[in-house]
Amino acid sequence: MFTSTLPRQNGSTVADLPTDLFAAIQSLKKELNAVILAHYYQDPDIQDIADYIGDSLGLSRQAAQTNADVIVFAGVHFMAETAKILNPDKLVLLPDLNAGCSLAESCLPDAFAKFKAQYPDHIVVSYINCTAEIKAMSDIICTSSNAVNIVRQIPEDQPIIFAPDRNLGRYVMAETGRDLVLWQGACLVHENFSEKKLVQLKIEHPEAEIIAHPECEPPILRHADYIGSTTALLNYAQKSPKLSFIVVTEPGIIHQMEKETPGKSFIPAPPMNSCACNECPHMRLNTLEKLYLSMKNRSPEITLPEEIRIAALRPIQRMLEMSK
Ligand code: SF4
């Protein structure tokens, strides 16, 4: 059982890696009473060793319910921060502290405070992909799984600011018919898909259904047969009678799609350039080696000022209540 008095073994390096990383991580999991939570966009190796794999909503729920003493969060910083907000007394580890998020970084607290001050009658609904400071300035948090449902529950005469993702905000506007004031943030992965290449791919695979994440730009979403969160895309691929899919989100999700739907094929949608820019560079900073070292060293740890944590907790709890 981990307690805060256990010594930390700082300074371990890649040279100290055991030959069987999977076995070493399993053993550390028992020693620390740790749970490994991993996002669908993580490397397949990390997904395979995780106790729970999910999207932001599923991971938040798991973080809120866990009995583990240590949460190892294989995802990006704002996700591990959310786990810490929900579990102030637990040790929350992020394998690489530099695993940030371009969307979260597109909404900085000072600028957002000024923006918010222009709309004093509005409440703030923020997508979970934002920093703890932005969550602390929000009334309700949402994820791509529940954003439409949450906005539908807010009285029609209540004006709303939606932050930080303008594409998810536009999608929610289209689905609910509500007029939202949007913060103009975007995700570098989802705004980088090429409409021209997507159309070309569909011509080459006319039988394939296009399934897309709502963080994509409207010209991409126009071509989608189905739009949903990563979990919703996975469920859709399982239930659809179609055998092939063009997947317009971070291609890490394809590992689970292939595992859970044998016999079906998944084609990653192409980015604008001939690079791997449809892979999230932040998510991909985590590796199995870093995950092992973070558990062995009990570091890097997520910490938060208590006043920010308390202020950020309220809108997350509202989300969890509203999406039961
Ligand atoms: S895929 Fe986009 S929204 Fe998700 S962590 Fe990476 S940069 Fe952030």
TrEMBL record:
Gene Ontology, cellular component aspect: cytosol
Enzymatic class: transferase
Gene Ontology MF annotations: 4 iron, 4 sulfur cluster binding; metal ion binding; quinolinate synthetase A activity
UniProt main location, coarse: cytoplasm
Keyword Metal-binding in record: yes
Cofactor mode of binding and number, as noted: Binds 1 [4Fe-4S] cluster per subunit.
Name of a matching Pfam family: NadA
Cofactor(s) of this protein: [4Fe-4S] cluster
Catalytic activity: iminosuccinate + dihydroxyacetone phosphate = quinolinate + phosphate + 2 H2O + H(+)
HAMAP family: NadA_type2
Protein task: Catalyzes the condensation of iminoaspartate with dihydroxyacetone phosphate to form quinolinate.
Protein name (Swiss-Prot/TrEMBL): Quinolinate synthase
Source organism of the structure: Planktothrix tepida PCC 9214
Protein's gene: nadA
